[in-house]
Amino acid sequence: MSQPSSDLRTWDQAVRPTPLHQRTSEFNVTNQWTTELGWTLPDVYQGVEAEHAALRNACTLSDLNALVTYQLAGRDVGAYLNRLAGGCGGNVKTGASRRVVLSNDQGALIADGVILRSTDKDWFLTLAVRCLDWLTLSASGFDCHVEDVSEQLCTFAVEGPSACAALLAAGCGGLEALRPGAVRLLQIGTANLVVARVSATGGLGYEVRCSAEDALFVFDRIYRDAALFRPVLVGQHARDVARLEAGHPKVGRDYHPATTANRGESRTVLELGLGGLIGIEGDPFSGRSALKKQQLSGAKHALVGLELDGSEVPVDLRLSDASGVVGKLTSVSWSPSLKRIVALADVEAKVLGSANRFQVSSRTGSAISAAIVPRPFYICPNARRTPPDAH
Amino acid sequence: MERFDVVVIGAGHNSLTAAAYLARAGLSVLTLEKNDYIGGAAVSREIEPSFIYSSCSYALSLLRPEIIRDLDLTQHGLRVMPYQGSVTLTGDGRYIASSSHPDVMHRELARHSARDADAYMRYGRDMRQQADLVSPLLMQAPPNPASLRPKELRKVMSFLSDAQSLGRDGLADAIRFWTLSASDLLDRYFESDIVKAHLAASAVIGTGLGPMSPGSAYVMLHHRIGGLDGPNGAWGYVRGGMGAVSMAIASALRSHGGEIRTSSGVSEIKVSKKRATGVVLESGVEIDAGVVVSGLELKRSVLSLLDWKELSKSFVEQVSKFKTRGSSAKLNIALDGLPEFTDIPSDCPSLDGDVRLCGTVVDMERAYDDWKEKVMPRDPYLEIVIPSRLDPTLAPPGKHVASVFVQYVPDKLIDGSWTDAKRSELQDVVLSKIEKAAPGFKSKIRHVETRTPEDLENEIGLTQGNIFHGELTLDQLLFNRPLPELAQYRTPIGGYYLCGSSMHPGGGVMGAPGANAARTILADARLRAARRISA
Amino acid sequence: MSGRSNSFDVAIVGGGHNGLVAAGLLAKAGRRVVLCEALPTLGSACGTSTLVPGVRVPKCAHVVSGFPPSLIRQLKLKKYGLHVLQKNVGRVALDPDGRHIPLCASAGATREAIFSWSSRDADAWSGFSKTMDALVRALRPVYAESAPKLIPDNLRGRLEWLRHYVGERKRGASSFQKVLRLLPSNAADFLDDSFETDLLKGALSLDASIGSFHGPYSPGSLFYWAWQRAGETASASGTLQVAGGPGGLTAALTKAAEAYGAELKTSAPVQSITAKDGQIRGLVLQNGDEVSCPIVISTVDPKATYLQLLGPRNLDAGLVGDVNRIRMRGSSAKVNLALERIPTFPKADESTLAGRLLLAPSLLDVERASNSQKYGILPDHPVMEVTLPSIMDETLTPEGRHVLSVVIPFMPFDLDRGWDAGGDILVDKVVKTLGEYSPDLPDLVMAGEVLVPPDIESHCGVARADWHQGELTLDQSMMMRPTPQLAEEAGSIKGLFLGGAGAHPGGGLTGRPALHAVAAAVRFSKETRL
Question: How buried is C447 (Cβ within 10 angstroms: 0-12 exposed, 13-18 middle, 19+ buried)?
């Protein structure tokens, strides 16, 4: 059985501050906060446009603690992760990472996340959904132990074209050689860091992990030593916009975890367009036969990217074509990078491949035209270059 | 001789609800109650001056929102205060303080098992989905699978087609919720014994089943189908005590022209040519009626009030076999101060809700096994609520009323009835158990009264002390409740209907049986009127 | 030795009666069949013990309940040595003072016996029997079906369902309603409503719940009882006693299967079932031998089949979880005694003693016995089913000697004090209880053996000593047996079929799971032209 935490008075704080709260609250001028996974995070520090602009053009810092990090140990970690995640979750070399999706027996998405292997024996799985239940069940028959280490860690993101330069200035020597997806152990002062060149926002970015105790120290050092690069604190809202531009679905909006979704709400990995993250012809994984069947019979739904005319963010999320309502928008936002409205939408699969034009209702009831476009909506130039461009 | 369109027997909350709907439809309605107070088991009593006990039922969840709306109960004074959590004390130092806030609840469960904290979200979703399946069934008469009438067949087919649309796994889930024991169902989600004990508690309330008995999972579901505060099956206190529910319904009834007479017990129903024509009071007074409705428990309604000559032998037999085994007792206590439980900080907000003194599921099961032997309970399950924590009208400032629900108390002991001495013994068992968990509790007691199942029967007609007017097992639910022949609120006597908790959808302060019966009565009246017109 | 590979059409895991039936049927149909049994002997629960030289007793199961005569004919078992000694073996409510109540087909004898206890109950007997029959009749078609679906999803299934519904409804609304009300109900209330005689209710409630985890007060116990009866009475011969005990059935099945060409391997435990890309490839034995075949029928319990032989790594995690959650707690123990001569039961002649003797003084006694199982302890007063097979079966013992076979239900597999100590305590309790019914019996015991649940698992190959390989509750029956998914498609592994008690319709010596598995396997091989 898992270790009970010593926090006996759970009612004292319904939603908790992250290890970075002391600093983020100082910067949170607008005092706009949001809640994710039981943590309180800044939603907007100063303004969405300014923060997004910094993310795309300069250097930013973000609190990423609204994630669950599991540590895995045992002889069979690789095999376990393969069976857990698309048949390929365990194919991660030391010093590498991999985006993965976890599916249940029906192929429905439980969570998407990242597997990081910082050393030979140190495997981490980070997800936006708590599912220790499923992870433990999946370990039956494997020598693999799964532990939630989120409380011990602090995770934040350093993103933007100047991110690498900023971290080098802060003492992360050799970082410029880190290829996309690679993971390295580094130090700032006495603090040990796990740095992964991974970003959900589509551009150059690094996820930095340190112990919760070192959180403020590391933050201060980076903020101080990278001062020349004027790092900007970026809240959830701006990051979500950038994430949408990168075409990544967000849990709770674009998909509902199969473990807690209501009837009819869960979607398979294929329906969410995440088939690229699984190896359907490879090693067995939970949901593989169901997904193979779906490949043959065809899916009922699809998550698609849309571009909308005009500049109004619609409130009525229903998507229609000539025949009627065929789906609904799950995420929609003005994209500062593209200067248009982009959205993800859950639609009936039958509308794919046709030349249909779609529409959404505006506030006044008139029709806003929408068209299906491939994802990602926006590709950051040279985001994958190694060494990264200086800025 | 007085004549009314409808005479309603009993002024419990279901009777009052039926009466109110009928009065609202324009009928002249007289409600007759044997006690000098109304409410049945939803009643507030001031036995110790300035202290208001909810002497039987003690919390509200299941009262149908449709009824609150239709009868405008809020305008008539109904005010409900949801409480945000409950506390389970296993007696070995551990506790769970549940919270309606999902993040707090998650961390609270994670203290005992991180896996269970995650599984709880899945459990909540599954429970909610099951409750959603059950809810539409509540405010309507159940389909009659034995009937060949097209209307009934359509209902049955529609029910089956709904079931089919659940898919294989959805249907399997529904079958599990309806047939498994609470313990076995919870084993499918959780590993921790205290988490399971916490959740299994609602399976044992008022039931003649143990948490390890098949069918007890349904009782957990039954306690979650309330719609008080949105879809969460939340529970709350009624301002002024549970009697305020009955008062509000009575006020609605009166506002529609209905009349209520207390101290007017009915001794029999007048029947002529297989139709009910009125009632005879215990005083001998006769009152005529076009329709008679009884909110009493089934056996009382049929066997005590009707002349058996009018009924077939097999019908009488079937009715007498209706299972109403009581298993609960109640203590009402006036306190000079709040109890201080050693195992949990006193400022925990979940203490506003129900505090359970239970062990693990195994301990609850042992209490159930004792109950089958009809011996004095050794270690009963206790559920304590102190509504005065949230409702200032129930006790003077700083003082409190506590309601203690005692589960697995036999309605009769193997060596006879509940004498005063036995009642005292039970009271001692209960108070000592509370004292152990909250030292100093006894010294705060100003007044205490204990009601055994026999007392509940004698005072308010809960046969054998069964709080649901009949056990909530599948053979007595839906189209089987209370009997297949009686599942649609009508009796073999024309014009005589049943509207109490013995009827679908069963017990708890729901009002649905009363509302459904009223709907059936009105439909039948329209039919008769139509026939008369066309004749 | 190791690495030898053999090619077959079908491999069967487990050599209990279901495995042998499958082997016989398939071999007779011309398939190349191999059967692998882990123990040195075939038969599993259908075995024979030798207590002292020349004295044999049914080791585990003691009667053959529900084995279809059509199957006996189909496999020509009589030709291969099956000798039926008794049909419709009756039950008797045994009474220490001799006022036994036979509960058998002859209603007259039963009524007469009950009359000495209660005239009211004697009158109630026929109504009670009628009601039981109605319940059993309602279930029998579902019992006999190969893959029952609660809500069928094709036209043929729907019509079948409608036909069944209308058929039941035609018997009258009242009878229909009674069936709907009783099916989810509990045996104890049904018995309390019908009778007042403790002995009668005790025996019937034992009959109702033997082999189950739940006692007679549990909802669902009436379903379990009616389900078992449906199996038993599916043929007019009911329960059979065969020469040699159920071991005689094993011997005949073995001979038949071998005569038809099946290869039967004993001491050949299977290490794993291999599958690739969702297709069965074959078996690997523990000694390294490999069997190559496109079809495997597993008659061992579903948990072992999926979690040990296939392995959780090769399955979806959700399926692993579901299989893990299959409840298998209905464990029994066995006491077998060799007796110098026939013991004296007051007022019981040999014809009475030739049946299944139910030793259960009252309903509450049976419930109490089931209670203790929940807590992992032994009951104070065990209830039990006893047979003296040597009365009808001369092949078991020399002249004058007898054997007594006792099935004790509600035995916790994990006993709090441990079964090393518990076994002796159990034997003492059993012999003491028997002595209450037959005072001279304890002194007649020449030799004996006790098989506690772990023994039944290891010596007879019955996992968890649960002969149903999974409780027969409403949620683990019919289209949910052993799990909803496996009832449909054996876990989406093509070529794998479940042919043991863990599949529909459950345990008992009926051979039906094997019949269904064989039919499905034959259909599969035709569809895939293998």
Answer: middle
